[in-house]
């Protein structure tokens, strides 16, 4: 089946469309049938992480993976319930259908990159968006393997997509800023979407880099050379001052997103109370694109004028509302990130606040009043209840830990009081191996240590054992 789909992707527009339809159909079927807790982590890693969890966390994990309730209750009644529950969780293995879908996703990754590199005269803007969404969907099936396949240097990769001069993206990047449209903003967002989903694993970049057979330094070098929203060769803010606010407007009015954007309707019978006190029914339709949120984040880094423009448009409220679409555990989970990337809003807020703060704007009081700091605390608490192989290390690091590491302001004491109230969760992230790129020290353990040291380093006999020097 993979060979037939690849042949269609190498064919004309009608053949490519047939492949898109079939791939999205298969991905939707995979998403509906596979367990939300399914993991591609090595068995030894999964075993170690599960055995290190508390019984309550194991029970929550069993519910999350939708294990048979009778089997779970039987394990809890055993002489050693923790060991029995671990064995039950370890027995859960991907089905033959899941393995087949993962193989298809891997096989189609590079051919889809080839489609995205074609001239806009051959692959229109609309098809470019659609092909990006297909690659994004397939990336969510197996982020590690698909991410590695899309980074191998001996074939067409994500990085080639970002550098193709005549593609829909290349033509958009050549436009004068004043001529940019919401469609152009979407082109930038869709181009980013596959990579951010591929990074949504417990090992983040590390695992995909290993699969690709390249070094972390090679990956970062490629990223720096091609990441079009923050290239040093485009030092002015002009393009980002147009594109990023356009993307924020799309978050305010998601109905403007194309019909083929991946959608997820959660249980219509339940609701949850978000950190800011409002009850949100989970039946709301989510059309949040991973690329939309990530491009807002990337387009803001170090650009004070862009941050100021976003704040004028009430960006904090829009991003907090995005987080309120799903419960905290969804923000930092690996499973379903291609369809429910709401946690990327944590990253977007962190970079917006850091950039605004560098420009002299103190947002600590607003972050407290709108409930965002409570969301940060909730995300860290949620991480403690999940096994590491199921946690999105990139979002956990680039969102809550990043903002706690860098935040200053008049209300910082109140922020710190809230984080001090969860020492167990803070210790978990401090001691964890979750992260973004271990080669460069960007791990949750490193950032968690910085946050804990800032909180407790001045205290004598503190719970973390830090000594002030």
Summarize the structure.
The chain has 469 residues and is mainly α. 61% of the residues lie in helices and 2% in strands. Among the domains are: 43-90, no CATH class; 252-469, no CATH class.
Features:
two-stranded antiparallel ribbon, globular, mainly alpha, 469 residues
- As laid out across the biggest beta sheet, the strand order is 1-2
Number of helices: 26
| Count of β-strands | 4
Mean pLDDT: 87
**Backbone CA Rg:** 22 Å
Note the main sheet: 2 strands, antiparallel
Tell me the structural class: mainly alpha
Overall spatial form: globular
Tell me the distance between the termini. 63 Å
Strand content: under 5%
Unreliable runs: 35-45, 265-272, 280-287
Order of helices and strands: HHHHHHHHHHHHHHHEEHHHHHHHHHHEEH
Helix percent band: 55-70%
Verbal overview:
This protein has a two-stranded antiparallel sheet. It has a two-stranded antiparallel ribbon with strand order 3-4. Strand 3 (435-437) and strand 4 (442-443) form a beta hairpin. It is mainly α. It is globular and about 65 Å long. The model is unreliable at 35-45, 265-272 and 280-287 (pLDDT under 50). Helix 22 packs across helix 23 (393-406) and helix 25 crosses helix 26 (444-456). It is 61% helix and 2% strand. Among the domains are: 43-90, no CATH class; 252-469, no CATH class.
């Amino acid at each position: 089946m993979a060979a037939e789909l690849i042949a269609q992707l190498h064919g004309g527009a009608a053949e490519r469309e047939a492949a898109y339809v079939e791939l999205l159909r298969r991905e939707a079927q995979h998403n509906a049938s596979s367990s939300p807790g399914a993991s591609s982590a090595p068995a030894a890693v999964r075993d170690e992480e599960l055995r290190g969890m508390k019984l309550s966390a194991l029970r929550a994990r069993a519910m999350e993976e939708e294990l048979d309730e009778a089997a779970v209750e039987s394990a809890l009644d055993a002489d050693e319930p923790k060991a029995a529950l671990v064995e039950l969780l370890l027995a859960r293995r991907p089905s033959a259908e899941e393995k087949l879908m993962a193989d298809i996703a891997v096989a189609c990754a590079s051919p889809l990159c080839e489609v995205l590199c074609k001239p806009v005269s051959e692959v229109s803007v609309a098809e470019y968006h659609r092909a990006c969404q297909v690659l994004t969907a397939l990336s969510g099936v197996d982020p590690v393997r698909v991410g590695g396949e899309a980074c191998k240097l001996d074939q067409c990769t994500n990085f080639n997509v970002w550098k193709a001069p005549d593609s829909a993206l290349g033509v958009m990047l050549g436009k004068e800023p004043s001529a940019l449209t919401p469609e152009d903003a979407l082109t930038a967002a869709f181009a980013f979407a596959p990579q951010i989903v591929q990074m949504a694993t417990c090992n983040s970049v590390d695992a995909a880099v290993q699969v690709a057979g390249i070094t972390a330094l090679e990956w970062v070098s490629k990223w720096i050379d091609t990441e079009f929203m923050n290239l040093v060769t485009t030092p002015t803010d002009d393009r980002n001052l147009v594109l990023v606010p356009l993307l924020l407007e799309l978050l305010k009015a998601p109905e403007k997103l194309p019909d083929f954007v991946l959608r997820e309707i959660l249980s219509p019978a339940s609701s949850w109370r978000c950190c800011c006190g409002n009850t949100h029914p989970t039946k709301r339709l989510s059309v949040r694109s991973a690329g939309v949120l990530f491009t807002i984040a990337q387009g803001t880094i170090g650009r004070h004028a862009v941050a100021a423009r976003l704040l004028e448009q009430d960006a904090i409220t829009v991003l907090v509302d995005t987080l309120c679409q799903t419960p905290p555990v969804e923000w930092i989970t690996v499973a379903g990130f291609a369809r429910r990337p709401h946690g990327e809003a944590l990253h977007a807020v962190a970079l917006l606040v850091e950039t605004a703060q560098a420009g002299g704007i103190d947002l600590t009081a607003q972050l407290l009043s709108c409930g965002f700091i409570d969301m940060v605390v909730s995300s860290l608490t949620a991480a403690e209840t999940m096994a590491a192989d199921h946690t999105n290390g990139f979002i956990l690091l680039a969102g809550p830990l990043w903002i706690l590491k860098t935040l200053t302001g008049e209300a910082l004491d109140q922020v710190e009081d809230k984080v001090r109230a969860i020492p167990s969760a803070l210790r978990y992230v401090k001691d964890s191996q979750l992260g973004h790129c271990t080669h460069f020290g960007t791990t949750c353990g490193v950032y968690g240590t910085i946050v804990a040291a800032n909180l407790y380093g001045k205290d004598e006999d503190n719970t973390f054992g830090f000594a002030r020097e």
